[in-house]
């Protein structure tokens, strides 16, 4: 029998085997692709932390996680050498935030500035995702209430309601890449009657914030709020803050420069007398420590590294 007739069955087997393997590979790839498309892939770490600088980010604490947050703000740098460029004088806010669920958290705090007590909740309504659900943004709702308890107003006829302010914010964020995210913050403020010279109690502002990851443990943040001119109080200016997040395991350190002394939304958005152009720049830092209070799980939340 000629050799060529012996080769024909061998060649047929080889080519059919290759075709079968190719078809099997294509089928497996299609199954994997379909499986991935049936899953929801959520955007992670849009911001490094639950705050940008002072204002909220769309990040939430995980369920049963407690965050103890200590914030410091020093006097303006232009106060000179006598005041050690502002470092001789500081105000502080002590806050406690807690995750009720992965999409809902609450918090309370006390500020030395205006002897203010404040509370808030943050509800994440939508979350940026791809796959089975294609959602281009993350959306959160944050209402805040604050009470000015300064005694200097006790001699004036003021009711409790006159000391109360409230702020309502929508946080609209998108993670554009693994290193860059942006956030918009439409804000409505109902100011109290004693903290500042407000012509209008109802104030509308829009904020914008961004973060850029520069290393595994470091992010650079910027935060700016613009008040509608017709709502802006005399002597109040828009707040601009620049900050750095440093993650170290269970701690987050935030170093920042800003023109605002207040650390509650009503204070830093609508009651900032300082201006960057005049050197009214204040250095501050925040220290955050998180504790897992519930049962530990594989994906317990900790300060993002």
Can you offer a commentary on this structure?
This protein folds into 2 domains: 1-38; 42-292, Porin (Beta Barrel), CATH 2.40.160. The chain contains 2 helices and 14 strands; from the N terminus they run αβββββββββββββαβ. With 305 residues, it is mainly beta. It has a 12-stranded antiparallel β-barrel. The longest helix is centred in the N-terminal third of the chain and has 35 residues, at 3-37. It is globular. β8 (164-175) and β9 (180-190) form a beta hairpin. The model is unreliable at 298-305 (pLDDT under 50). Helix content is 13%, strand content 44%.
Broad CATH class of the largest domain: Mainly Beta
Query: Percentage of helical residues?
Result: 10-25%
Which architecture name of the largest domain does CATH use?
Beta Barrel
Q: Care to count the β-strands?
A: 14
**End-to-end C-alpha gap:** 72 Å
Order of strands across the main sheet:
2-3-4-5-7-8-9-10-11-12-13-14
What is the subunit arrangement here? Answer: single chain
What would CATH call the homologous superfamily of the largest domain? monomeric porin ompg
Please name the defining characteristics of this protein:
Porin, disordered C terminus, mainly beta, 14 strands, 44% strand, 2 domains, twelve-stranded antiparallel beta barrel, 305 residues, globular, 2 helices, two-stranded antiparallel sheet
């Amino acid at each position: 029998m000629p050799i060529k007739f012996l080769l024909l069955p061998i060649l047929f087997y080889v080519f059919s085997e290759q075709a079968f393997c190719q078809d099997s590979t294509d089928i497996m790839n299609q199954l994997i692709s379909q499986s991935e498309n049936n899953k929801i892939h959520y955007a992670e770490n849009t911001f490094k932390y639950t705050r940008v600088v002072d204002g909220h980010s769309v990040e939430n604490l995980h369920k049963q996680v407690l965050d103890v947050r200590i914030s410091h703000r020093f006097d303006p740098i232009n106060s000179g050498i006598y005041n050690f460029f502002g470092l001789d004088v500081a105000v502080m806010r002590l806050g406690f935030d807690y995750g009720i669920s992965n999409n809902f958290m609450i918090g309370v705090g006390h500020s030395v500035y205006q002897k203010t007590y404040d509370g808030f909740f943050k509800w994440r309504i939508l979350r940026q995702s791809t796959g089975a659900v294609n959602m281009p943004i993350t959306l959160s709702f944050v209402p805040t209430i604050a009470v000015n308890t300064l005694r200097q107003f006790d001699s004036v006829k003021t009711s409790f309601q006159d000391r109360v302010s409230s702020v309502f914010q929508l946080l609209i964020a998108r993670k554009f890449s693994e290193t860059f995210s942006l956030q918009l913050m439409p804000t409505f403020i109902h100011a109290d009657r004693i903290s500042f010279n407000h012509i209008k109690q109802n104030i509308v502002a829009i904020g914008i914030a961004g973060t850029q990851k520069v290393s595994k443990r470091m992010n650079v943040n910027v935060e700016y709020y613009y008040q509608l001119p017709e709502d802006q109080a005399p002597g109040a200016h828009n707040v601009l803050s620049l900050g750095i997040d440093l993650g170290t395991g269970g701690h987050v350190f935030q170093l920042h420069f800003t023109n605002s002394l207040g650390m509650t939304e009503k204070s830093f958005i609508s009651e900032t007398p300082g201006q960057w152009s005049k050197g009214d720049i204040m250095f501050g830092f925040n220290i955050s420590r998180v504790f897992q209070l519930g049962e530990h799980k594989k994906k317990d939340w900790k300060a993002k590294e």
